[in-house]
Write a structure and sequence with these properties.
The protein has about 300 residues and is α/β, with parallel strands linked by helices. About 35% of the residues lie in helices and about 20% in strands. The protein contains eight helices and seven strands. It has a seven-stranded mixed sheet, sandwiched between helices. Helix 5 links the parallel strand 4 and strand 5. It starts with a helix and ends in a 13-residue tail after the last strand. Bound molecules: S-adenosylmethionine. S-adenosylmethionine binds next to helix 2.
Length: about 300
């Protein structure tokens, strides 16, 4: 690793540590706040509508509830998410295992978008040490609280957690080597904006390696408006063709969408099938110090 690169990582560390401390404080404060208990998927208190903020409110309530319940596995039933590190707390709600499909090198900076309880951040942190960083971004206080506890349990001092939204990632341009994500982008109202934001924080040559739900056909608008189906990572899913188009519009190259599984047609979705996909792409430009995706 060159000196300049090392300095850049140190500068980034400082910036991230400052944000991370703010998250620690914010999470502690929010843990004392009443008002979310008993909320299930789709609440009487908050209605989704079709605005980005309305959807985020409902999704945040749902995943706050899931974090507190720590119940198992995404109700999308879209694929297995197996923990690779034992002893960590909280639910695993993904639809695949992106870290099983990529190579990581010590010194890299990895960002997990919608990290939930942070288990994959901890795993990535161990794989990029020494010298690398793994960052987890989530908007739900209860998930971040579990993630901070998991960092403490694992002792992974190079894992950091940021509070924020995937539509507005609190990181500088061109600061990340690898973006991973597991069953999250389908939850956004504007997936194109999220992919553009991920492109912004990736370094030139940086890569995206995510799992997400996909559908094989258009989802009826009634299903899209159904809060339960949306929160369960079902009705917000894109088709593989739409995913490719949005990645391309955001500026990515080397786009690949591999379907792992297609479920049986779902009546609630007008007989559309839900699937789980491993999606890779790259921000064009010269990469500095890592190998291509290893699939
Ligand atoms: C299905 S869970 C997946 C969590 C984790 N990736 C895993 O595999 O266990 C979705 C996660 O994305 C987070 N999330 C949803 N929408 C988000 C947004 N707009 N910005 C940031 N995080 C978001 C939720 O809080 C939740 O933790």
């Amino acid at each position: 690793m060159g000196v300049l690169q090392f300095q850049e990582i140190l500068r980034l560390c400082d910036e991230i540590l400052a944000i991370s401390r703010a998250v620690d404080i914010e999470v502690k404060e929010s843990n004392g706040v009443e008002g979310l208990s008993g909320i299930k998927c789709g609440t009487e208190a908050v209605h989704m509508g079709n605005s980005g903020e309305g959807i985020r409110k409902v999704v945040r309530n749902y995943y706050g509830y899931r974090a507190r319940e720590s119940s198992c596995c995404c109700s999308c039933s879209c694929g297995a998410s197996v923990d690779s590190i034992e002893g960590l707390k909280g639910p695993s709600l993904g639809c695949g295992r992106p870290l099983e499909r990529i190579s990581l090198t010590s010194g890299e900076v990895v960002l997990d978008v919608g990290c939930g309880a942070g288990k994959e951040v901890i795993e990535a942190a161990l794989r990029v040490a020494p010298g690398g960083l793994a960052l987890g971004l989530d908007m739900t206080d209860e998930m971040l609280s579990l993630a901070l506890e998991n960092r403490r349990i694992s002792g992974a001092t190079n894992a950091f957690f940021l509070k924020g939204t995937m539509e507005n990632i609190p990181l500088p341009d061109k600061s990340v080597d690898v973006v991973i994500s597991n069953c999250v982008i389908n939850l956004a109202q504007d997936k194109g904006a999220v992919l553009t934001e991920i492109f912004r924080v990736l370094k030139p040559g940086g890569r995206l390696a995510i799992y997400d739900t996909v559908v094989n056909d258009e989802v009826p608008s009634a299903a899209k408006a159904d809060e339960d189906l949306w929160c369960a990572c079902i009705s917000g899913a894109l088709t593989p063709v739409e995913y490719r188009q949005k990645l391309s519009a955001a500026g990515f190259s080397e786009i690949d969408v591999q379907i792992d599984t297609w479920a049986e047609p779902m009546e609630d979705l007008g007989n559309t099938r839900l699937g789980s996909a491993f999606i890779t792409a790259r921000r064009p430009g010269a990469s500095d110090h890592f190998d291509p995706v290893d699939v």
